[in-house]
Amino acid sequence: MTDWLSPAEWDAVRLSLRVALWATLINLPVGIALAYALARGRFPGRGLLNVAVHLPLIMPPVVTGYLLLLGFGARGPIGGFFESSLGLSFAFRWTGAALAAGVMALPFMVRAVRLSIEAVDPRLEQAAATLGASRLWVFLTVTFPLIIPGILAGTVLTFAKGMGEFGATITFVSNIPGQTQTIPLAIDLLLETPGGEGRAARLAALSIALAASALALSEWLSRRVAARVGGQ
Amino acid sequence: MMLDVSLRHRLGAFTLDVQFRAPSGVTVLFGRSGSGKTSIVNAVAGLLIPDEGRIVSDERVLLDTAAGVRVKPHRRRLGYIFQEGRLFPHLTVRQNLGYGAWFAPKGAARADLAQVVDLLGLGALLERRPAALSGGEKQRVAIGRALLAAPQLILADEPLAALDEARKAEILPYFERLRDSVSVPILYVSHSASEVARLATTVVAIEAGRVMAQGPAAEVLGNPAVLPTGAREAGAVLLARVVAHHADGLSELSAGGIPLLLPRVAAHPGASLRIRVAAHDVILARTRPEGLSALNILSGIIHEIRPGGGPGAIVAIDTAAGRVLSRVTRRSAAALGLAVGQEVHAVVKAVAVATTDIGAA
Q1: Alpha helices in chain B (DSSP H)
Q2: What is the pLDDT of residues B10-57, one digit of tens each?
Q3: Cα A92 from Cα A97, distance rounded (Å)
Q4: What share of chain B is helix, strand, coil (3-state, %, to 5)?
């Protein structure tokens, strides 16, 4: 097995999993909150927020990476704040790769969750309110259980995006083996290295396998949820 | 226990302007579709905030736009039974029933789960999910869920309208039991004359966003001037007691001492019933008819004659059994020379009274 991929490439795989996992974990609460606000909220600036969430989807990834560098880099205003208050730095570290993956995947999470919130009959939420549930309880006991399939779909998309993000990552945190070199960045480097095609192909196959397993897992989970909601 | 409602609200070109009082028992908001009944109930629930209004439930101010009081729906202590049930699809029947109870104040006097399950016949359904229930079963669960929320006010918005006749006949008795077993006011929206006749303690007749009449059911339904769903649906309510069941399939009842014969009713001798007698099933005669197949003849004095817009007229007759309405043509009224204060004989064919128009009093 160790011959199949070199230790540096296994590092890339582990790093990709870690980056994708953290991007997903952070995106879940943020994405659900944004999706709820966009689906059910009526507040000034809602349209603007919608555009902001979708920007990473329509902008060139390099531009997203560049904006992250400006904002979250060592000398960026937000990056400086995190560094001084939490001791958390993003520049040229795996945390920056996770941030880039999270930002790039946010529109996928928000879209998937928002669609499923919009599919929840608001009259059920009204019924819960008349039975004594406050807005938070309505969300926790009625809305949330009914949107689990959408959350699962968003989770898989986010995870897959986190595994595969390239443009924003390489622009924001560069291609540093062991720190920021995720699978796609490693593949990119191998393709430019003489004799690296074989290993590039193996990494590519592995990343396809990981993405497919994530999809299969979420399909299985959402079938179980659907059976519970619509079932006997 | 008392609910006082006063509202004014504009909905496009339509203006709702109502004021009424609902005591204990069932108060039916009775009117055509589109007359504003559902908006009234939603305002009481807090799901609609009217332009102006004041709603007081048993000295608890739920809404007072002048004073800036707007209690949120979840703090109004309601049990709202919706037309479409609105059960939570991801919860079992047992969890649906327990939902409101979980949010009710800890010290609140609440109905007992076992009793409600028994009252509504839900025992076999508890572990099922709503998708596996029939329309009638869903509505029974919705009633139970509202009851178990320890409500201080029960709202029902046409809870039977989405059901077929057989299911309606199945659910109506549960509402009759509800009326007789809870002390909190029940505000019930309906456009069905027979539901009103069977359930209502108090009737608030609504037409085009305004209250036409309000008062005890027999009084409002016996008023020929108040026909919120049209003359075709006119009918008065008689209170009667079951005397005996006869071998030929008829039941003998007594309304104010006057015997009434009806097709076999599903009630034991001694039970009190409400019987809706539709105005179009009542024939009038100046002299007491003889040699007639109809079994019930109620003699009385004409209280009012109200010509309708078409060829018909509604005649209100005060009999010893109670107020009876009769729908006749204006031509017949003229031919008979009917006049207020005159004695007439109202003839009711026994089989004309539908079993769906008979309910527990």
Answers
A1: 37-45, 93-103, 113-120, 135-147, 165-181, 193-199, 217-221, 330-336
A2: 988 889 999 999 998 999 999 988 889 999 999 999 999 999 999 999
A3: 8
A4: 25, 40, 35
Tell me which residue of B59, B56, B37 sits closest to B48, measured CA to CA. B37
**For residues B83 and B142, what is the distance between their CA atoms, to the nearest angstrom?**
10
CATH topology of domain A7-230: MetI-like fold (1.10.3720)
B110 contact A CB<8A:
no
- Number of other CB atoms surrounding residue A126 within 10 Å: 20
Q: CB A228 to CB B90 under 8 A?
A: yes
What are the pLDDT digits (tens) for A58-110?
A: 999 999 999 999 988 878 888 888 888 888 888 788 999 999 999 999 999 99
The residue extents of the domains of chain B are 2-221, 235-360
Please choose, from the candidates A28, A60, A16, the residue with its C-alpha nearest in 3D space to the C-alpha of residue A156. A28
Q: Domain B235-360 class?
A: mainly beta
Architecture of domain B2-221 in this structure: 3-Layer(aba) Sandwich (3.40)
Nearest residue of A to residue B100, measured between CA atoms: A131
Residues of B in contact with A147 (CB under 8 A): none
Nearest by CB to A127, which of B75, B86, B129? B86
Min Cα distance A136 → chain B (Å) is: 11
- B254-264 in b/e form (b: 16+ CB < 10 A) is ebeebebbbee
The answer to whether the Cβ–Cβ distance between B89 and A230 falls below 8 Å is: yes
Judged by a CB distance cut-off of 8 A, whether residue A226 touches chain B is: no
- B-chain residues near A229 (CB < 8 A): 89-90, 129, 131
Question: Do the Cβ atoms of A232 and B77 come within 8 Å?
Answer: no
Cβ contact, residue pair B131, A142, below 8 Å? no
Q: Is A136 on the interface with B (CB under 8 A)?
A: no
Within a 13 Å sphere around the CA of A32, how many CA atoms are in the beta-carbon half? 19
The closest CB to that of B73, out of A130, A230, A231, belongs to A130
Complex ipTM > 0.85: no
Give the nearest partner residue to A124 out of B76, B86, B128, using CB atoms. Answer: B86
CA-based end-to-end distance of chain A: 47
Q: What is the pTM of this model?
A: 0.82
Give per-residue burial for A155-175: e unless 16+ CB within 10 Å, then b. bbbbbbbbbbbbbbbbbbbbb
CB contact under 8 A, B88 and A232: no
- For residue A79, give every residue at least 6 positions away whose Cβ sits within 8 Å of its Cβ, in sequence order, or none: A71, A72, A73, A89, A90, A91
Q: In the 8-state DSSP scheme, what is residue B104? A: S
Q: And the tokens for B318?
A: 């005060």
Question: Residue A230 has what pLDDT?
Answer: 58
B6-15 pLDDT per residue, tens: 999 998 888 9
pLDDT tens-digit profile of B276-315? 998 988 999 988 888 887 788 899 999 999 887 778 889 9
**In chain A, what are the domain boundaries?**
7-230
